């Protein structure tokens, strides 16, 4: 039978049993004997033996109701026996006690069966207790964190620190820590995972208590329970913050019943008996056909049954559903009877036949039941189906999940049912995203991975980084690796199947897993836009719900219980991309002028025409209301969009008054209601629900606390003079457009092509997919890499243990035993993790998933490029497009390797170049105002230039873009993230500087040569092309180099001064007699200031190397001043770092954790590189000037230069000699990192400075104090200010005039500065006299 939309023309009213006259008329439709045989066949009594046809009472539609009443009759004694159960106290309907049986802060579902912890360690018990007999209840584990599940008595008192199992007469199992609790704790059971089911069993006849995990007994946990008068046990749980579970006390069929144990809540036995008998009658209708011509009954398959309007069959079904309808509204009956029947249909035959039968059933439900009854039945059916899917144990071929997904597809392929579920259930009541999730097995032995992968292997990395050669694997390791790879291939074949064909011309590289294929089919059904017969198509209902789903997750970021779990989002995103690309390419096949999905992007007008709501998400240019106000003229001229001033004013005021909205009624209720734990309805999203999948609406607390105020409701998009509607009000025409309406694409800028990309609705789905990645997918992909990191850590620990075993003397048997035990533990853990890693690579980091993320990256790149062409309107683009472009590239580079390489992807180099162009252009784009996104762009560019492939991509972008990027990098550092800018310049230089070719900090490798956990640096990959651009720009104008270098010198002065101040505080704290811990954050900031100082020195080294004339050509007006400032800073750094037994030396000796990078080598080689460039490599005239300036600085000390080559400072008179075994720093000790030529240059520099210093000392004349500069007292007076006549040295006045034009002394405006010579001035005065 087809669905109603497919041609069903029967009215329900035609088959109501109304009058006897009508019944008599109907009796003659078929032969009376044939009718009687048919009715006896359909309504056969289950306990009635086979009887001859002549001995049976003839049945017709007059006496059928009486016969049916007898058939459904249940003995009253049996009913009463079910109601009176000895050993149980409390209500017959068992729920969680939300009125007084809890402690802490908890969120409880509206069915009072699911709970989420919202405090440190909240506890809640049930309303019913037991004191005799054997009882069981189940707990569905939704999160695998800290929880204690079990039993307690009413006298147990709990708090935020002690829960179930921490007091007398309370007993608990904790699968997170794998222990059992009853005041004390011992090891027990196995670790649980999200999706597991824990069965809690208590035998009060024997006094024992036990637990099962997914139907497998964990053994007796406790014996000799206290029993007797006043001793009754309640089911109870204690759970920490964010953890969630759902209880099944018997309101639904137990997933793992145990013989002899009764659920706390009795099943509805009477309803079950009646429902089973009615189901038998219904089965008979589907399997028997009337043949009125030959007057006989014909047996046939259910899949071949068709309802062809035969009144006899319709009336028969009407009698069945007259009784069946009310039963199908009961939760237990739906899951135990209807669900079992439908699953049996799905498991029995091929999908097409099963789908036909399911459609027949749904057609009959809609035909013979009231709409509200069908809707309630479908709601319960989908809830049960989702629960079965989510809490199914993992097996390698996922056969259990496949059956549940096939039934879901069969239900959703029924048009009327699909539209109802999509409109009212899938996103509103259920966590329907669960249908797209494939959970990872925590216990590999239960998933069968030991059989599939009997031999395990893990990579063996060399502990010494900086060595390019990889340790060659042994023959045994090679055999293990190959056996492991074969096992991984077997696993992949078990969970993969061919299918999911795409439209012609679109190739699918490898077959997707069958479960994923079914999940994609579900989304294809939800995205169907051809089912608009008599109503809205499914796709547009989905768009509305999908947008609200995104809003809930975007608005709830930071409030974890309100979010969709990120592991669900990852799977949902991949399935959504597959379904989206399928429909995109399908539309291309029928509309050749459109684009393939490989060319997809989101047109820029969607961001500013108000057709799509982006909630409170930040735009590149700031707030939307601000952009519409400031760019209204551009909108009118470029996009023909007019902003109504009144609407704009209302929007602005709405933003200002956002925090002053009246609180909803629930939030205004008196706080006393909270103190007693009353039921408080909270309008919250579905993600607050626990595994019961219903909306949680009770917030329980034992103390007066403030309610979470509901978020601001979905606001309509700001009104412009175009047709704009809220997400709920939009129709198909508002999205897709019509002849005179472009729908979502209204306001097309002139830069955009006229031909459409695809259907507008698919563009909105694509936009939502990009937003999903930004919300939580990227973060979750990073978390999954933790399995690989764990493998590496345990492999390292195993190698260390094996090395110790080889070195341990055989006479130390005690140590050998401990090491052997550790070796066994590490090996077992590695076996487990390597099998888990194989599953993760097959399900999360497969090549297909990598291609999805790569496609999303390319979509973002095209979207950004098209948005950039719109000029000022680019500011309307949401920030997350740039974030996704950056993060998706990072994920492809870091998360999918080494199993799959990004270099294997099609168009890899072109994509790298396009991303490089975007980063180079937009990191300093004035249209982007958000601090966070600007920092992200800067950090992404800094990371980009670290790696050879991406650096070559930067070099491939057009020359004008490269030059513009370098110009932005050289802009003055004030009001900019100068630290990140400096990192970029440093990375362009690494590998070219003096002793700057290391990948591990050399001083750490000297002290800890075998420590593989030392911080590492990327292998140097300098860019001579970008260095040349930098040199050309610094030579370009008179102001570029001075402004840039003044910024660098200012920041160097600040960074090094901050570093010295911090190490002084650290030294003082370390020398205190009382035990004092230095704040780790302070240590981190201190190390950062040191690293910044080193990097700034390296930038100066690069500048001097590329453009030495900036400092040495004194024909330039600023060269002398820059050189003097540089010499001053270099001398300060050398004096602070090279002094023996000074502050720096003592802090380095402490070797504090967090200060590993702080040492003599990094900063001294940077300073040495600058000095060598000035004093050795420069021209003769430049060397002479640099030498004179360096020696003229009062802070210059020759012993600081001697220190570089290991010549210690001579002890001061009266001080003790240094210890003879004290090691002195010397560049000669780092021959692995400093070449012989570089050492020779240092020796040449030292000899030059020694000679020049001696000559300067011999030629210098004593200077009186009155002739010294009154500002610095270091240099003689050499300049006079006009018109005021005050004097100072040239260095002081030049530096002062950079920022201020007022005189030091009188604050008069300085017009000019003239050279001043005391002798010349004196002679001029005397001659005048």
Which helices and strands appear, and what pairs or packs with what?
Elements: H1 20-27, H2 32-42, H3 64-71, H4 76-83, E1 88-89, E2 102-103, E3 105-109, E4 114-117, E5 121-125, E6 129-130, E7 134-141, E8 147-152, E9 170-174, E10 179-182, E11 184-187, E12 197-203, E13 208-213, E14 216-222, E15 234-240, E16 244-248, E17 262-263, H5 269-287, E18 288-291, E19 296-299, H6 311-327, H7 331-348, H8 351-368, H9 371-390, H10 399-412, H11 415-424, H12 449-452, H13 475-495, H14 514-526, H15 538-555, H16 566-590, H17 624-630, H18 632-639, H19 645-656, H20 672-675, E20 696-701, H21 732-736, H22 760-784, H23 786-807, H24 813-843, H25 847-868, H26 880-894, H27 908-922, H28 931-944, H29 948-956, H30 959-970, H31 978-989, H32 1002-1007, H33 1024-1036, H34 1040-1071, H35 1080-1106, H36 1109-1112, H37 1119-1138, H38 1143-1150, H39 1160-1175, H40 1180-1192, H41 1198-1203, H42 1236-1259, E21 1279-1282, E22 1287-1288, H43 1290-1297, E23 1312-1315, H44 1318-1328
Parallel strand pairs: 7-17
Antiparallel strand pairs: 1-6, 2-5, 3-4, 3-20, 4-16, 5-15, 7-12, 7-16, 8-9, 8-15, 9-10, 10-11, 12-13, 13-14, 18-19, 21-22, 21-23
